[in-house]
């Protein structure tokens, strides 16, 4: 689907296609425990979020140099451009790299190099969202924010991702307050596998402006009313929800009910190399499986620009 759109929920490490993983492994002398790309692809059968995260973090071992991160981001931007993306707000997971000895500057400057030429090369404006891994400590998140300070001109917002259940948003109260003081914007994954209460906490304790996923808000009608009346955007990822078994089949995804309830829904790809499609493929899939018509797809595309961290002029240019 080539409707002009913004992508707001995209983990850059989740765009690592098997072919690039093997190319980087060869370049960096990393031995992968798979014979080839075909065998690696057969591992992409997940039971839940954790079973995906185990492979997602393991495969990052191939990313070592600034050039690797720049190449990863550039490959995503080329694919996104071909699917109508005009603006992308891109997550990255610094702790997944610093924990294996890759300096945070290597990660941010490598990604930044690809992003700063993206408008010219791919016609996509970009922002970078630094995520804290919620299954690591609050202290580690604070250290990460501190370490990122020399590179803050490249970062627009902070986010929260990784294993959700047992790691409520309130654990990260202090680092979100510090990020606010630095002028950063705020989002958080909530209500993917975790309960509706985590969505409320992300809003009330962390002060986030958007909720990533938010799927489980549908279990709590009062919360839905609040999200509707405050026009809090949800960055939904339907293909991810199927692959990680949050919903059984795409045909049963609550997206149509969420739109009918008046929620500000956007559709995104999450980790497209693992979940079977980039954002244009996702638009196509919800059209086919859920019967969303052209007007509803246009609404989703319009919502993506409304929910983006763009000012009015930037929004007009991107659309
Ligand atoms: N990191 C990458 N993809 C994720 C997802 N869907 N949920 C939480 N953390 C993630
Ligand atoms: Zn995500």
What is the class in the CATH system? Answer: Alpha Beta
Number of strands: 8
- The residue ranges in which pLDDT falls below 50 over 5 or more consecutive positions are none
Q: Helix share of residues?
A: 40-55%
Instruction: Give me the CATH superfamily.
Output: Metal-dependent hydrolases
**Rg, Å, rounded:** 18 Å
Q: Architecture, according to CATH?
A: Alpha-Beta Barrel
Mean pLDDT: 97
Order of neighbouring strands in the sheet with most strands: 1-2-3-4-5-6-7-8
Total number of helical segments?
17
Q: Tell me the series of helices and strands, N- to C-terminal.
A: EHHHHEHHHEHEHEHEHEHHEHHHH
Largest sheet: 8 strands, parallel
Give the structural class.
alpha/beta
Beta-strand portion reads 5-15%
Overall form: globular
- CATH fold naming: TIM Barrel
The unique ligands bound to this protein are: adenine, zinc ion
The domain count comes to: 1
Distance between the termini: 15 Å
């Amino acid at each position: 689907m080539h409707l002009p759109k913004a992508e707001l929920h995209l983990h850059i490490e989740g765009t690592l296609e098997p072919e690039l993983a093997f190319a980087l492994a060869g370049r960096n002398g990393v031995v992968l425990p798979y014979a080839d790309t075909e065998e690696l692809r057969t591992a992409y059968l997940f039971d839940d979020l954790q079973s995906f995260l185990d492979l997602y973090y393991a495969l990052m071992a191939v990313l070592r140099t600034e050039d690797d991160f720049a190449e990863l981001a550039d490959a995503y931007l080329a694919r996104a451009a071909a699917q109508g993306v005009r603006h992308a707000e891109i997550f990255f997971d610094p702790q997944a790299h610093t924990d294996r000895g890759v300096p945070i500057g290597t990660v941010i400057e490598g990604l930044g190099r690809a992003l700063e030429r993206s408008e010219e090369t791919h016609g996509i404006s970009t922002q970078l969202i630094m995520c804290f891994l919620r299954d690591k400590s609050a202290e580690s998140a604070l250290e990460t924010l501190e370490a990122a300070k020399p590179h803050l001109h490249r970062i627009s917002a902070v986010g929260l991702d990784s294993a959700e259940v047992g790691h409520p948003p309130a654990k990260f109260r202090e680092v979100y307050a510090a990020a606010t003081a630095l002028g950063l914007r705020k989002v958080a994954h909530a209500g993917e596998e975790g309960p509706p209460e985590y969505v409320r906490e992300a809003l009330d304790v962390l002060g986030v402006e958007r909720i990533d996923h938010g799927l489980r808000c549908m279990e709590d009608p009062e919360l839905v009313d609040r999200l509707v009346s405050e026009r809090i955007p949800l960055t939904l990822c339907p293909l991810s929800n199927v692959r990680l078994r949050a919903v059984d089949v795409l045909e049963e995804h609550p997206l149509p009910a969420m739109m009918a309830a008046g929620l500000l829904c956007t559709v995104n790809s999450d980790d497209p190399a693992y979940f079977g499609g980039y954002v244009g493929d996702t638009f196509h899939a919800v059209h086919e499986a859920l019967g969303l018509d052209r007007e509803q797809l246009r609404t989703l595309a319009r919502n993506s620009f409304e929910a983006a961290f763009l000012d009015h002029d930037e929004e007009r240019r991107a659309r």
